[in-house]
Specification:
Blueprint: H1 5-32, H2 39-83, E1 87-91, E2 97-100, H3 102-108, H4 129-138, E3 146-153, E4 159-170, E5 176-185, H5 187-247, H6 252-279, H7 288-303, E6 306-311, H8 323-341, E7 345-353, E8 356-363, H9 370-374, H10 379-390, E9 394-400, E10 404-412
Parallel strand pairs: 6-7
Antiparallel strand pairs: 1-2, 1-5, 3-4, 4-5, 7-8, 8-10, 9-10
């Protein structure tokens, strides 16, 4: 289209030159007072006019070609606008339709010829109109293209998810004159996202149920081991002691063997108690804080790590929490310290923040890396996050190489699986 512009510009400039020359000629003619001295200038002017006529004819051809090119491009644009796979709308700054293509009309459920003058806001689902209107108003001050996802209720009663993308049209003074809309139907994508989220929720509910059943089984087995097996071992020890007492000093060899048996029974009783505590610490029945204190002391006894505990929350404030889940998260955090950190000092702080229980475990070990935190095969960390999510909570990990790792467990005070 622009290839004819140099010819038109040249034609315009020559026209201006000819007009100026003619004016000079008229001035000379008036000064000559009828004399014939101006004839040579007139002849030159006529020659220039002939040349100008030729240029004018060429310019006319160029101008007609320019008009033809503009019309061809306009038709191509109109055809592209009409048949585009996405919806296109032109509206005023209030969102009233000036023009729209077939796809936009189909998405809105109206005939294309009836789009003009309709207010786009009226197609937005009633519960989402206020935020849509606020977004639309804010566009006047934002020149860049922006997008928004919203649901529309079309005239054919179909409910669709639409991604709106908007561009601005401004006049030479920078004033916003109209809006250019692109409408993309994302209903299938949104339904797939909703289905995926429902599946995730179902998996979380299933995982929570599995954990609940597992804890109940642990509790039952721990009680059976402690009561039944522990009771039997205690009875065996009493019998061994009775036999040893009856033998007295008469049979030193038998007495020594019975003493070894009694010692083995003591070891077995300790093992039973330890196993029962591992399955489900009885101290959990006393509350979360006593259970954390017990677990931290056990960790210190087994690893030799220096441990510090600070508590800034009352046990009564935790009555609505699923303490078992929180305790298991704390257990897992200490297990990770023992396995991976190589720490010599562990600090635990239990408190509340913004209506949530907050348990922070900090060590001075090697420090977890961002790559390890994001690693999809870090099933332990993933499991901790999922467990916390069952209570609408979260677990955050932060590490500094050579300095240590910080784990923060945050659970809403009403958190319950």
């Amino acid at each position: 289209m622009n290839r004819h512009l140099p010819q038109i510009i040249e034609l315009t400039e020559r026209t201006q030159e000819l007009a100026a020359h003619t004016q000079q000629l008229l001035t000379k003619l008036e000064a000559s007072q009828g004399q014939r001295a101006w004839r040579d200038d007139l002849a030159a002017c006529l020659a220039q006019m002939n040349e100008f006529g030729t240029s004018l004819r060429a310019g006319g051809i160029a101008f007609r070609a320019l008009v033809s090119d503009v019309e061809a491009e306009r038709k191509a644009y109109r055809e592209l606008f009409r048949s585009a796979p996405n919806g296109y709308l032109v509206t005023d700054i209030d969102g009233r339709v000036i023009e729209g293509n077939q796809r936009a009309a189909a998405l809105l459920g109206v005939e294309q010829g009836k789009l003009k003058g309709m207010l786009l806001l009226n197609f937005i689902r009633s519960s989402e109109r206020e935020p849509f209107q606020c977004w639309l108003v804010s566009l006047a001050a934002r020149p860049e293209l922006r997008t928004l996802e919203s649901r529309i209720e079309s005239r054919d009663k179909a409910l669709r998810w639409i991604e709106f993308s908007i561009g601005h049209a401004r006049d030479s003074g920078g004033k916003l004159t109209s809006l250019r809309w692109i409408l993309l139907d994302i209903t299938s994508r949104k339904l797939a996202e909703l289905e995926l989220e429902q599946s995730r929720q179902q998996l979380r509910m299933l995982a929570a149920r599995v954990q609940e059943v597992r804890e109940e089984e642990r509790k039952h087995i721990a009680r059976e081991i402690h009561d039944q097996l522990g009771g039997d071992l205690s009875a065996m020890k009493l019998d061994v002691l009775w036999v040893a007492k009856r033998l007295g000093a008469a049979d030193a060899v038998s007495a020594e063997r019975l003493a070894r048996i009694a010692s083995l029974i003591d070891d077995a009783i300790d093992g039973v108690r330890s196993l029962a505590s591992e399955l489900r610490p009885a101290v959990l029945d006393l509350g979360l804080i006593p259970a954390i204190e017990w677990q931290l002391n056990e960790f210190k006894r087994r690893t030799g790590t220096t441990c510090h505990l600070s508590v800034n929350v009352a046990e009564s404030d935790l009555a609505s929490l699923d303490t078992t889940v929180v305790f298991r998260l704390f257990q897992e955090a200490l297990t990770n310290v023992a396995r991976h950190a190589g720490a010599t000092d562990v600090e635990v702080a239990v408190g509340s923040e913004n209506g949530s229980l907050r348990v922070e475990i900090r060590d001075n070990g090697r420090g977890i890396t961002p790559e390890a935190i994001a690693e999809p095969t870090s099933l332990g960390l993933i499991g901790m996050r999922e467990r916390a999510a069952q209570l609408a909570g979260r677990v955050d990990f932060e590490g500094t190489p050579g300095v240590g790792t910080r784990v923060v467990i945050s659970i809403p005070s009403s958190g319950n699986a």
